[in-house]
Amino acid sequence: MFTIRVILFFLVATLSDTLAVLAKKKPSAIVPLMESAKVDLIKYSGRWYELARLPARFERNCYAPIVANYSLLPSGEIEVINTCATKQSDKLTCDDVGERCLSDRDDVSITKGVARKVSQPSEDTMLEVNFVKWLKFLPFTWANYHILAITPDYKYALIGTKGQKYLWILGRSATKIDYTVIAKFVSIAKQNGYKVENLIYQSGVLPR
Is-contact 114 82, C-beta < 8 A? Predict the structure, then answer.
């Protein structure tokens, strides 16, 4: 059920974006505050943990540990596998042990998709994501994600969507947190028009 909700959400969201363009509506501008002009997909690949996010309908029943795995494919696209617990638990959340922290649970949701860079060189920090494999040929099934900021060591990333509706702070570790980076990302998000006061922080990641 969770996977179906995710697919339906992206279909509706991307179709809405398409209709907005057809209606010649100007999309909300995003301030170019990326720390890197380009994104190395090889370095970007790997395991990421969700540290904070703005409320999202498709994640309302998703609890820590929330893990995203990105694997670079021969085609140049990125395989996306999102995993989370569907029930809140006091059990110690995972860190660098990877999926083993979820293997003993029966309340796990897995959603698979694919990501790719947009074709415009001027938007090298934008990815298109699709969670409906059999409809990849339809443009409106792809949702745009902006990499607003990424640290030089690729240990933290700030991801947002057009319209400043959705936002994620990702890290390579769920427990070893650099709060200076978190604070900087929150500042960048605020300058880009995101409602950072509504951010939902994962347990143990509350800003200091």
Answer: no
Task: Determine the Cα–Cα distance for residues 132 and 141; give it in Å rounded to an integer.
Answer: 7
DSSP at 28: P
Euclidean distance between CA atoms 85 and 108, whole angstroms: 5
Domain segments of the chain: what residues? Answer: 2-201
> φ, ψ for residue 197 (rounded to 5)?
-70, -15
Q: What is the DSSP letter of 164?
A: G
pTM equals 0.75
DSSP string, 46-58: EEEEEEEE---GG
Phi, psi of 179 (to 5 degrees): -70, -20
List average pLDDT for each run of 10 residues in the chain, which is 208 residues long.
Answer: 46 43 39 59 92 86 87 91 80 50 67 82 74 75 86 93 91 90 93 93 71
CATH code given to domain 2-201: 2.40.128.20
Question: Which amino acid is present at 206?
Answer: L
Characterize the bridge pairing of strands 156-161 and 126-130. Answer: unpaired
Q: Of all helices (H) and strands (E), which one includes residue 180?
A: helix 179-191
